[in-house]
Fold each of these.
Amino acid sequence: MGSYSTSARLGVPSRIHHVAMVVQSIEASLGLYRDMLRLPLETVLDIPADRVRIAFLGVGESKVELVEPTDDTTGVARFLASKGEGFHHVCLEVADLAEELTRLAIDGVELIDSAPRRGAEGPVAFLHPRSCGGVLVELIEAPGGPSWAALKMAPRG
Amino acid sequence: MGSYSTSARLGVPSRIHHVAMVVQSIEASLGLYRDMLRLPLETVLDIPADRVRIAFLGVGESKVELVEPTDDTTGVARFLASKGEGFHHVCLEVADLAEELTRLAIDGVELIDSAPRRGAEGPVAFLHPRSCGGVLVELIEAPGGPSWAALKMAPRG
């Protein structure tokens, strides 16, 4: 329980975990986000399974995520081809992701992922933009939450 | 200087101040953001000068802003008519907005507002999406920064 914030324990999202932008090139986009806006670059990471490369830059308790498709077969690549660079999704941190998904489904929210799955930064699930006013919303479970163990994910130190 | 975070003092954006979504109806959208995602509603505010109504919901050190056009003459209303509901802009907090704008202009970033102006929550300026990978970026000055006094804005207690 030590890593839960008070608000997370009460079932209220505890922070914006990240805001994700689709970009043509992470390298080129760092010119804006790292060099001009001076957000500290934390990670650049290939995710071969998703055929994307991602970067995280820090801003307070949140991050900006840059997502660059590495081939043209994925949803993110089609997004880039059809809409161009821009906002992709916002990710909110919750205390108990499985419980949250159950509750949202009962409330009639359309889920892309009906159960937590392994994400780069923890257990995640996406909600459908049709249920979220056109916004793709991701939920991530706070470190120490029950889905970390269920998915055999080890919080990084 | 008391309200400056360490990072703000060093000229690094200190937090995501808010993420703004354009909505048809704040009342309807509270069904998702307040009732289903359980973000605490902080303010609902008419801004007649901008012909919008806005709501702020809290999440950690950040907010989600909902923006509802109140007539069909504004840029936000045209955005809603052409693209539908969805993400509108992300706002980063900086320590010294005028200095930041000067530096960004020198770096070649296209500014919508070349100087700080009065926003609902403090001195603000927008950067053009053409310079920001398709993302509309707003900057807001942290309470206690120099533009508050220059614009005769009083930080709220």
Amino acid sequence: MSDHPTLPVAQLQAFVIAIFVAAGLSEADARTLAASLIEADLRGTHSHGVIRLPFLVDRLLEGGANRQPDIRVVNDAPGTALLDGDRALGAITATRAMEMAIEKARTQGIGFVTARNSDFIGTCAHYAMKALPHDMIGIAWTNGFPGMAPWGGRSNTIGNNPIAFAAPSLSHGPIVLDMALSVAAGGRIRLAAKNGEKIPRDWLVDSGGQPTDDPQALAAGGALLPLGYKGYGLAVFGEILCGVLTGSRILGEIPAWFKDTGSAIGNGHLHIAIDIARFVEPEAFKLRMDGLVSLLKATPLMPEVREILLPGERAWKTQQHQEKHGIPVPSPVAADLMALARRLGVAAPASLLPSFSDSLDCTT
Amino acid sequence: MSDHPTLPVAQLQAFVIAIFVAAGLSEADARTLAASLIEADLRGTHSHGVIRLPFLVDRLLEGGANRQPDIRVVNDAPGTALLDGDRALGAITATRAMEMAIEKARTQGIGFVTARNSDFIGTCAHYAMKALPHDMIGIAWTNGFPGMAPWGGRSNTIGNNPIAFAAPSLSHGPIVLDMALSVAAGGRIRLAAKNGEKIPRDWLVDSGGQPTDDPQALAAGGALLPLGYKGYGLAVFGEILCGVLTGSRILGEIPAWFKDTGSAIGNGHLHIAIDIARFVEPEAFKLRMDGLVSLLKATPLMPEVREILLPGERAWKTQQHQEKHGIPVPSPVAADLMALARRLGVAAPASLLPSFSDSLDCTT
């Protein structure tokens, strides 16, 4: 048995659902949350997977998020809607909004559904990809706590406001772009700090606004740099479309969901579904997508590059592998999950137990 | 009189309209084209202003673009449409598509109108901004000739596919982001080559895929670098939404509009209008936008930075100045415009005449 337990998808999913139910969510809402976390792990975005479960449970138990939310439609036009999330954990409201966008797209060609009074939604890709089985293109965008500097600034006063796009292909899996608007993710910098590594000098400035390769500078009042003035500009429109348009909190008004677990987040998000059949025949679209992939992959390569990748290509391969072989859960994460299970009186899957218990078995 | 003649907006506009009419466009289409070019100059985007007039006229005279296009609605849903541009110069089809998106947004909350069989559309900002007087948010996106490398590639095999967003504020003018997805614009690199200047090493690779500070490397088979893998990913979705979804040409299928003036371009574009009133009260939205601007501007500054700017802030100031004081036309551009006027038998504005004619007057 390896140091990192690997769990079958269904087993991990059932455990996550049981945890959320024990923390006070309805079975349906627990399933929605679990789907969001498990898919992130499945696609290799472990930073947004079950590692976040303890924080989300804290939000439910400490009152930042509403355990029995009443999500309401505040404004409804044929092609658009605004939901009030009633402080539900973000995946619940975002799933509802995306499903509503897909329904609208069926009759209107497009659906554009936004939400306010919401919370952290996890990976945007999860919602954008919901459009794919309906032969639709999906888009999701959210604002969040200020974790990035605006262009020219040296403090984190704007969200890195991730956006995701998803479109189907015939034989290359879903093409999925999911990106935050900083050069690098805050998580990568915190990991480098933990590991005592240096970072590239265009990721971060220290509290004096000087470029630095020391990841410790982030915790000491430094700021994450945006992806140039273009990344900053997109982050501004993330605030406008997800925050200002929806009547949500923006910029520094938004607490960090994983720190202030007792506070409402109040951010906003948007979800778009576009019905391919209103433009071209869906099968022709997918065949043409394969052509797009082939043309891009035929580009002469940079030295030491082995292949041109499409957005989401690596995640798709990871997903196919893990669906068969299970999801690896690093031991420290497994330990956190077991502590959470004990706290909530939920049975942890046997495969989450650390490897030394196997050794103990051998000595008896 | 300076070396660079400065023309009142109305005078330059009347001249551009006369040129397009002489080249075979209807008066209405000529006005549409002129509005696109003049607004680019007004906002300081001179690379997309009247400097492009001779190329566009060549497209009309040499048959790449259709002088008497019949733009048709191919597919029409309540919230979406697909137009066939019939090879019209892009501004004509893009203006029609944006107006249609605005009309749809009035009744549906959102309008999403695309076009195929089109041509170069100029600045995307021009169309996105058309939404503003209607208290709507505007978005425009286009694909174009392959002028950028995909991430990991060393040849220009994907368009830099510019996208624009526009939203109104109460007292800060329109907030407008208009960006291509390469690190730097090809035009800036060609200008540096002409001036014998070096460029930053993250703009370009030479034909062997090596970073270079020599702008001459572009013409010698080099490639423009994308704004990281995120810029590349957005460019891929520019191809998908503007090209694949609309049944248009993509990637290397698209000729360069300013070189192959006798060939159809066949690219596609998309236009979105979002009716603010379907989400929040428009005046409250604009007031809140002012708050967003204030909060961002209060960010502590990097050394040597004087002010946090909002997307489009500089362009708005330039526009207000030039609307009063006229648009400067560099002498080489003025000479090209006068040659074009002679070729088409159109009277050039007196103020386009070079300054030496003033001197000549003084000697008589």
